[in-house]
Structure formats: C-alpha cells, structure tokens
Amino acid sequence: MSRALNRRTFLAGSAAATGAVVGGAALPTSAHATSASSPGAKPYVPYIPEVDVRDAARRDPTEATLTEAAVLMRRHRLTSATLVEAYLDRIETYDSTYQAYAEVTAATALAAARGADRNGGKRGVLSGIPLCVKDNYFTDGVPTRCNSYIFQDFVPDHDATAVARLTSAGGIVLGKGQMGPLATTRATTPNGTVTTVNAWTPDNPATDPGGSSTGPACAVAGRLASSAIGTQTGGSIVQPANRQNLTGLKPTMGRISAHGVIPLSYTRDHPGPLARDAMDAALMLAVMAGPDPRDPRTLGLPGLPDLVRAATPVVSRGGTVRMRRAVRIGVPADFLSSATEVREAFLGRLDAISGVTLVDVTYPDDWALLTGTFNDARLSERTEPFRYWLREDPTKFGVSLLSWLQGLMLSGDEWITAQRAKNHLLREVLDGVMARCDVLLQTGPVPCPSTSSACRRSPSPWASRRGYRPVSSSAASRTRRTDCWRSPPPTRR
Q1: Environment class of 433 (CB within 10 Å of its CB; exposed 0-12, middle 13-18, buried 19+)
Q2: Given its phi and psi angles, is residue 402 left (phi above 0), alpha (psi -120 to 50 degrees) or beta?
Q3: Residue 189: count of CB within 10 angstroms of its CB
Q4: pLDDT per residue over 166-224, tens digit each?
Q5: Element holding 428 (H helix, E strand)
Q6: Strand 172-177 vs strand 247-248: parallel, antiparallel, or unpaired?
Q7: Residues forming the active site
Q8: How many other CB atoms are there within 10 angstroms of residue 476's CB atom?
Q9: DSSP states of 357-426 as a string?
Q10: What residues contact residue 331 under an 8 Å CB cut-off, 6+ apart?
Q11: What is the DSSP letter of 294?
Q12: For residue 289, what are the CA distances in angstroms to 28, 44, 63, 76, 408?
C-alpha cells in the first residue's frame, strides 16, 4: 500500500503536525490542487445562475442569499463594500446577543471588499461575498482557537485548503465562527458556559442551536454572513442547519480537503457548507471540492457533477415543481412520529411532487446496538492526536475531559469488534435500507415556539421553501408570520 494512503503513516504524521501547531512550529503552506478529481476528468467550473432577486434582498443586502448578492453585484446594483459594511453593522449591533463569532476580521474584510469592487468582480465566482469560517479551520494570521485551552494562543501562518479555495474564488472572510470545544458539543466555553444561541430565539439560550458548528450556522441564520463553512464528524453540520432552518451539506468523504482543519476523527471528519438554500450550498461545495495532495482522502474520487444545475428547480409549464428523475424516498416509521399532523402534511407535499415515490423502510433489528454501544469506538480515534495534552495537562480539555479519557481506556479488542460492527452496519444500510430507496428522510423540522416572547423578537432565518417571501426588518412592527416576528434580537444583559 502506498505510504500516502497508509493509515498508520498518516496518523503518525497528523500527531506530529498537531504537536507542531501547538508548539508554534510552522506547517507548510497548502498547495493549490487541480480542480479535476481524477486523471483525465474534465474540471467542473461553478457559475452563478440568473435568479430572480426578491424585493427584500434589494432593500436590505443582508437578506440576500449568496446567489442573489452575486447577481446584484454582477448587475452593478450592489458593491462588495456595501455588502460587507451591512454585515459588519449587524455584527457590531447584535453579536453581543448571538455570540456567533469568536473573532471578527473587519479591517481585512473591508479591504478585500474594496479590492473586489476595484477589479470588477473578476477574481472568481464568489467575488466580494462575505463568509464565516468555523474556528477549527486554519486562517493565515487570524487566531484559530477551536474553542479550546489547547489552541488558545495558536495563530496559523497559512489557510486551510478549503479556506484558500474560497478566498481564491473571491470569498471574503468576515471572521471565525464559535464552536463546541474541539468540535465536541454546541458552542460553549471549555468550562461549559453557553455562548452562541439559536438565531430564532436569541434571548433563550435553552433553545438548542445545534453543534458543533453552532457559530457559523447562527451567523448565516442571523444575517451576519452570506454563507459559512463548518465541519461534521457526527452531525455537526446537519444538526445546526436543521435547528436553524438552513441548508447544511455533509459531502462525500474526501470531496473537500480537511487539510488545515484541527482534527477530531480521521475517518469521520467532513468539511462542508452551511447556507441559506440549496443553491448557495451547491456553489460553496463546488468551490471547495477537489483533490488535495495533502489529504489522501481526496484522491481518486469521480469528477464533480454540475451542482448548480442540480440545485436549480425543474418547473413545469403550469408552475408546478417536478423531479429531474424518478426518486424513491425512504420514510422510517419513527420519522416525525411525535408530530403526526406535521408528518402527514409534509409527506403529502412530497408525494404530490411528480416523480416522487414514498417507500416505507425499517432499520435493522440491531440498529440501536450498532449505532449506540459500538459508536464509542470513535473516542479512541479522536483521542489519539491529543494524547500528549492528556498526559501533560488534562485540565486543558475543560468539562469534556471524561469523554477524552474514555478514548484512552478502550481496549484493542473492543476497538476491533467495533470496526467489525461498523462494516456490518454499512452492509445493513447499503444492502438493506438503501436497497429500497434512493434517499432517506432522517431529520424533521424543529418548530419555533410561536408563543415564546423570545421567538417573537428574533430575526427570522432564511426560509428557502417556495412561496415564502421574507420581509425586511423595517416591516417587523406590522408584519407577523405564524412562527416569528421579523425584528432584531434584544441586547443581552
């Protein structure tokens, strides 16, 4: 087996790299990878489609999706400087409540925006678009703390590959998003104090915003960034997206390089976008995707398809939406089982779409065992790069210390049994559950409590469903949705 793909060699290298990071040694700058995913493959070049820009986006640029903002700039109806200033104004006014950002890079963001305006948006597909980056991605000259005592003084001298690709395409980093300590929980301090809130209920920290990519999700949902990037090891992109009404995308393993991302689990870490709708997520993924010689997981994948086309709805002449191809959607028995009326209404809407077939599916009999007990095997994998600090100063792990110690205590035979269980689980899912369907419903909507005063005072996150027309915050006093008022959050005392 090639040394580049040998797991033991990689883990030894990753441990040394992590040690170099905390010790202050510089790591080599990422090489820019080619955009083709395999030899001879034709590179996919992302593009901004023509879309109808809503009135709300014209009135308030922070209401615009990434795609709408890019279209407005292409039509010379918006400048990057205006867009960045609008977001920075909201950050200055409201982030004391949201606590979405760990670091705001206002001066460099404004300078980059003015540069994008001078070159007429010719730098790339994301030219002039303000983004939030989760605080476990390396950012050149900007602290990358991973919300951990271990990295509290770490300032990288280069960008992670994903960040470098976004900025090479013209994206502008507004700042670093808050996260769970070492990407383990919702955003809290290492001592357990809750920081980032749910953008729908900003004065109620008890409303779960999802984690660990809590800050980037809140930044997008609270209109503090056009889009964002997070990481997922066990739900840390899709969960905060579901909690805050966003489109979160966990790509195929290796589709986006994890080089320059502080690791949690080598076989499970996935960088990916947190966006306001499917089109924005497609554009972000298309820019970040591609092979990277510094991350062997990215090598040898099939070429990237036309994600922009895939995210464009197919509308019939009568104005109804249809599927591009026949799709079987698997519905587990427990999907929205606690909300029968919502389940029936949602499945009814799906079933009415031309090309959709709903299929009842069941999980394997040993599902709970395979996804529960044996899942503890992940703890030893995430502990491995951090053994040095567990030996030298375990207090640096804060309130999550116990789970890190559990990883040290897992025996070799237990780990091997867990790997066999994982292979069995894959076969059960691929040959069993997914043999009957093409996609599977797993997460349901999280309701915003309309009777809560916190909800009524929160800004409504972007809703990408067809038929919803957002209103600007200036109309909040006279316009009420059934779920939330459209107004800024209160200032946290």
Answers
A1: middle
A2: alpha
A3: 15
A4: 999 999 999 999 999 999 999 999 999 999 999 999 989 999 999 999 999 999 999 99
A5: helix 412-431
A6: unpaired
A7: 134, 212, 236
A8: 18
A9: EEEEE---TTHHHHHTGGGGHHHHHHHGGGHHHHHH-GGGGGGGHHHHHHHHH--HHHHHHHHHHHHHHH
A10: 347, 358, 359, 360, 361, 441
A11: T
A12: 21, 10, 27, 29, 34
Work out the end-to-end distance of the chain between its first and last CA atoms, rounded to an integer number of angstroms. 58
DSSP states along 10-77: HHHHHHHHHHHHHHTPPPPPPPPPPS-SSTTPPPP---PPP-PPPHHHHH-GGGS-HHHHHHHHHTTS
- Per the structure block, which two tokens stand in for 32? 């820019």
Six token digits for residue 227? 């889009």
Q: Hey, is 188 helix, strand or coil?
A: strand
Q: pLDDT class for 469, splitting at 50, 70, 90?
A: very low
Rg (CA), the chain: 22
Beta carbons within 10 angstroms of residue 282's beta carbon:
25
Q: CB neighbours of 146 closer than 8 A, spacing ≥ 6?
A: 135, 136, 179, 181, 182, 183, 262
Beta-carbon count within 10 A of 58 CB:
15
Please report where in the chains the tokens 């953008």 appear, as a residue. 199
